[in-house]
Write a structure and sequence with these properties.
The chain is of the alpha/beta class. 35% of the residues lie in helices and 23% in strands. The chain has two domains: 174 residues, Flavin prenyltransferase-like (Rossmann fold); 208 residues, 3-Layer(aba) Sandwich (Rossmann fold), CATH 3.40.50.10300. The strands form six sheets. The protein has an eight-stranded mixed beta sheet, sandwiched between helices. The protein has a five-stranded parallel beta sheet with strand order 2-1-3-4-5, with helices on both faces. The C terminus is likely disordered. Bound molecules: flavin mononucleotide.
């Protein structure tokens, strides 16, 4: 997929420098053209020879180059690059970049390039949490660099916490999503739920809600366009599903529950955009309830699909919606936590329900937040998938 792409891999002097060898090897397997640039300190951890062998290309180790290296001087490489990946990025390198310092080949190239830059911090947890480092990471993010956040786990120094270099797959996915924006969900299965449910009272009546299904269908269309295998589990709507999607029609919340769980294992990503009925009549009356009969409408609670998905979550990225009438963000964050969601899309009921447009706030992690203006649901779908794509994803099928 990355065939012919010019990728500069910048390696800085952290303990995770050896992991760059796996990343470079994967890039080469996808037939990318890789140029490795190492800081002086990086060369203390891994030898340039490793990367020279993996890339069959000269490794850049110094700003002042020998005559043989003129053809890859920093400005030329900065212009040629389709993307610059810094993995691992030390605290020192991040701080330097944030200050605009250009005192070696890699930091000079970062200033000189117009290509997208991906920065993958990796360091001791205390260094990562240091306010200065955090502020500098934010600075880089504001300058349109993509930060691939480190993972939490056991660090080389023995500490537990955030600071491990992001997984290879996540980094590769991020590169693909930037360089091949229209195929960023290739090889991914996305299970999407859409529409309302209907809970029958008798042979002709039901309890339902005003969901139109437009948001879920827009997501299904956008995901299919971007190369995903889409499974759309839909309640009753009048909409036409994308022809590439596998469509499963359901009526009740229980049917939706069963179908979603039946396909959960296949899914890499689940986006629950349906408005599932919380209650259903305790008894389904056969035939038609007569007007003259007294209607005794006893309701029971339906199973909570998202809650169940959250409990059974393994590799999946879980995305939910919160349509709220009050305390929008507080309630949405509560829901995200209670159901182990990775991302939640919050909107006021009056802004989106059964409309063609929506005004949403994307919330993720501890503080992640992106508020969007009123947009057509197709555009909202694109924004949501862009966010998921950027967020991604250690999912391997
Ligand atoms: C054994 C050892 C391991 C280190 N690991 C890291 C690390 O994982 N992350 C980090 O930010 N700095 C780490 N450092 C510190 C950097 O090497 C140091 O800040 C250096 O100046 C970075 O230079 P560079 O950013 O130009 O590559 C480590 C240093 C040593 C000696």
């Amino acid at each position: 997929m990355l065939k012919g792409k010019e990728i500069v891999v910048g390696i800085t002097g952290g303990i995770a420098a050896y992991k760059a060898a796996y990343i470079v090897s994967r890039l080469k397997k996808e037939q990318a053209r890789v140029t490795v640039v190492m800081t002086r300190m990086a060369q203390e951890f891994v030898t340039p020879l490793t990367f020279q062998s993996l890339t069959a290309n000269m490794v850049i180790t110094d700003l002042v180059m020998t005559p043989k290296q003129w053809e890859i001087e920093h400005i030329a490489l900065a212009k040629k690059a389709d993307i610059v990946l810094i993995a691992p990025a030390t605290a020192n390198f991040i701080d330097k970049c944030a200050a605009g310092i250009a005192d070696d080949f890699l930091s000079t190239l970062v200033l000189a390039t117009k290509a997208p830059i991906l920065v993958c911090p990796a360091m001791n947890k205390n260094m990562y949490e240091n306010q200065l480092v955090q502020e500098n990471i934010q600075k880089l993010a504001k300058r349109k660099m993509t930060i691939i956040e480190p993972e939490t786990g056991r660090l080389a120094c023995g500490d537990e916490g955030a600071g491990r270099l992001a997984g290879e797959e996540k980094i590769l996915d991020a590169i693909r999503s930037i360089l091949i924006p229209h195929a960023d969900f290739q090889d991914k299965t996305i299970l999407i739920t859409a529409g309302p449910t209907q809970e029958p009272l008798d042979a002709i009546r039901f309890i339902s809600n005003r969901s139109s299904g437009k948001m879920g269908y827009a997501l299904a269309r956008e995901a299919a366009l971007r190369g995903a295998e889409v499974i759309l589990v839909t309640g009753p709507t009048t909409l036409i599903p994308p022809k590439e999607a596998t469509v499963i029609h359901v009526q009740t919340a229980l049917e939706m529950y069963e179908q979603v769980l039946a396909h959960y294992q296949e899914a890499d990503i689940v986006i629950a955009a349906s408005a599932v009925g919380d209650f259903r009549p305790r008894n389904l009356v056969p035939g038609k309830i007569k007007k003259k009969n007294q209607l005794n409408l006893a309701l029971i609670v339906n199973p909570d699909i998202l809650q169940e998905l959250g409990k059974r979550k393994k590799k999946q990225l879980l995305v939910g919606f919160a349509a709220e009438s009050s305390n929008l963000e507080i309630n949405a964050r509560k829901k995200m936590k209670a159901k182990s969601l990775d991302l939640i899309i919050a909107n006021k009921i009056e802004d989106g329900f059964s409309k063609n447009t929506n005004k949403v706030i994307l919330l993720w992690g501890k503080n992640g937040r992106k508020a969007l203006p009123v947009l057509p649901k197709e555009k909202v779908a694109k924004e949501i998938l862009d966010k998921i794509s950027a967020y991604r994803i250690e999912i391997k099928r």
